[in-house]
Specification:
441 residues; alpha+beta; Vanillyl-alcohol Oxidase, Chain A, domain 3; eight-stranded antiparallel sheet; 31% helix
Length: 441
C-alpha cells in the first residue's frame, strides 16, 4: 500500500508512488535520476506548511527532512552554507551559536528553509526584503541527477529564478545565505483603534524596524506588533505572562472563538468583541529568532496577497468592510505586513515596495466564499498571491503581474525541459514546459 502524505493543515493529501528520504546530496541525485528512469515526476516537500497542492504528486515525493546539516559558517563575512531541508527553528538556533542571525523572519519557524525560500516567505519591515533575497548561491539537482552550482556571478538568470522557484527547476540540495550579526528585539503588542493606526500607518511603519497590523474582524480594533532592534540585555516575559499570551489567548482562546463562529455564525460579532477584551499589552525583549516566531496550534487555511504598499490601508479597510457587509463568521485577524522590493523573478515583492494582506479561516470552515471575495479586491491592485497559500489564479492571470515571468520560464525550460518537476499546481500557476520525453505521475 502506498504511503500517504498530508500537509500541516490536513487539507491536502496524496499517495505518491514512493516517498524518498535522502540523507545527502549524493543520495538526492540518485533518487532523482532513478525517478526519471522509472518515468515518474518528482516533487520536493519540506514541512508541509503550504496550504496549496504545491507538493502533491502520485510520482516520487522527495522528503528532505534528513538533510538538515549546517555545512559551513564564516562569522566574519556572515556567509553560511546549509542543507536545504533544515527547519527554520533549527537554523536560527544554530546561527545564534555563531553570533549570527537571519536579517528578518516570518512569524512561523516550523517550515523547511527550501520550502520557505521557494514560496517567497517573508517577515515585516520596510527596510528588509523577503528571505530569498539573502540567498547568495545554491546547488540544484536537475532531472538528470546532475548537480548545478548557481550564483549571481556564474548564472545570474538562474540565480534570480532559483531563489523563488516553487520547486519547478529541480531539487535544491543546499543554500549559501548572507546572515547578519545576532541582534535583539523589543516588541510591544497592544490593542489600538483601527482608524488611528491606519491614518498614521506610514509613520508607524517607518518608525519601527518591524511593524505588523492584525485587524480584528467585527470590531473597530487592531492588534499591532511594534518592534525595534536594541542593544539592551534580554528580558523575556515571565512564565505566567508568556503562558497567558501565547497559550491561553493566542491559541486556546483564538481556537475556541473561531470554532464558535463556525458553529454559530450569528454570534461572531459578539465573540469578536469578547476576544478583544482579553487581549492585553504584551512586551518581549529577547534574541531576534525568539521574538519573530510564534507558536501556531490552531489549524487554519490561509490566503495572502502582495500588493503595492501605497494601497495597504485602503485594501485592509475594504476587507474589513467585506466581512461586516456580508456577515461572514470570520474571526481570525486580518494580517498586514510590509517589505522592501527585490529582484527574484517570481518574488511577490519584485520591483515594488510591498504590503502583504493575509486572511485566514479555521479548518472545517467553508473558506472559499470569503477567499474569492478577498481575491477579487486584491486583483484590483495587481496582487500577487503567496505561492504557498491558497489562491485561484492561473498562469494566464499571473504572467502579466510579474515583469520577470518570461525570464523565469526561459530558465525553467533550460533546466527542466521535460517537466519532471511539474505537478498539477505547477502546471496551473506556471503553465506547461517542454514537449520532450513523456513522464507520468
Amino acid at each position: 500500500m502506498a504511503e500517504k502524505w498530508r500537509n500541516w493543515a490536513g487539507q491536502q493529501t496524496c499517495a505518491p508512488t514512493r516517498i524518498e528520504r535522502p540523507a545527502s546530496e549524493e543520495q538526492l541525485s540518485e533518487v532523482v535520476a532513478r525517478a526519471v528512469r522509472d518515468g515518474l515526476r518528482v516533487r520536493p516537500v519540506g514541512s508541509g506548511h503550504s496550504f496549496t497542492d504545491a507538493c502533491l504528486t502520485d510520482g516520487v515525493m522527495v522528503d528532505q527532512s534528513g538533510m538538515q546539516r549546517v555545512l559551513d559558517v564564516d562569522p566574519v563575512s556572515g556567509l553560511v552554507t546549509v542543507e536545504a531541508g533544515i527547519k527554520l527553528h533549527r537554523l536560527t538556533a544554530e546561527l545564534h551559536r555563531y553570533g549570527l542571525a537571519l536579517e528578518n523572519q516570518g512569524d512561523i519557524d516550523k517550515q523547511s528553509l527550501a520550502g520557505a525560500l521557494a514560496t517567497a516567505t517573508h517577515g515585516t519591515g520596510e527596510r528588509f526584503c523577503n528571505l530569498s533575497a539573502n540567498v547568495v548561491g545554491c546547488r540544484l539537482v536537475t532531472a538528470t541527477g546532475e548537480v548545478v552550482e548557481i550564483d549571481e556571478a556564474r548564472a545570474p538568470d538562474a540565480w534570480r529564478a532559483a531563489r523563488v522557484s516553487v520547486g519547478a527547476l529541480g531539487v535544491i540540495s543546499r543554500y549559501t545565505l548572507r546572515c547578519v550579526p545576532a541582534f535583539r528585539i523589543r516588541r510591544i503588542d497592544e490593542i489600538r483603534r483601527a482608524a488611528d493606526v491606519l491614518a498614521d500607518l506610514d509613520r508607524l511603519v517607518a518608525a519601527h524596524d518591524h511593524f505588523e497590523v492584525l485587524a480584528l474582524p467585527h470590531t473597530d480594533k487592531v492588534l499591532t506588533y511594534a518592534s525595534r532592534r536594541t542593544d539592551r540585555p534580554a528580558a523575556p516575559p515571565g512564565r505566567v505572562t508568556a503562558w497567558w499570551n501565547d497559550d491561553v489567548v493566542s491559541n486556546v482562546g483564538l481556537g475556541v472563538a473561531c470554532h464558535l463562529g463556525r458553529l454559530l455564525p450569528g454570534a461572531a460579532p459578539g465573540v469578536a468583541r469578547t476576544l478583544t477584551r482579553v487581549i492585553g499589552r504584551y512586551e518581549q525583549l529577547d534574541d531576534s529568532y525568539r521574538v519573530f516566531a510564534h507558536q501556531r496550534r490552531v489549524r487554519f487555511t490561509e490566503m495572502e496577497y502582495a500588493i503595492p504598499r501605497v494601497h495597504a490601508a485602503e485594501a485592509l479597510e475594504r476587507v474589513r468592510a467585506l466581512i461586516v457587509d456580508r456577515r461572514l463568521p470570520v474571526l481570525f485577524p486580518i494580517e498586514l505586513r510590509f517589505t522592501a522590493p527585490d529582484d527574484a523573478f517570481l518574488s511577490t515583492a519584485y520591483g515594488r515596495d510591498t504590503a502583504y494582506l493575509a486572511v485566514h479561516h479555521v479548518v472545517r470552515a467553508e473558506y472559499e466564499t470569503f477567499f474569492r471575495a478577498v481575491e477579487a479586491i486584491m486583483d484590483e491592485y495587481e496582487g500577487r498571491p503567496h505561492w504557498g497559500k491558497r489562491h485561484f489564479q492561473t498562469a494566464t492571470t499571473l504572467a502579466p503581474r510579474y515583469p520577470g515571468w518570461q525570464d523565469f520560464q526561459a530558465v525553467r525550460a533550460r533546466l527542466d525541459p521535460d517537466g519532471v518537476f511539474t505537478n498539477d499546481y505547477v502546471a496551473r500557476v506556471l503553465g506547461p514546459v517542454g514537449v520532450g520525453r513523456a513522464v507520468t505521475g
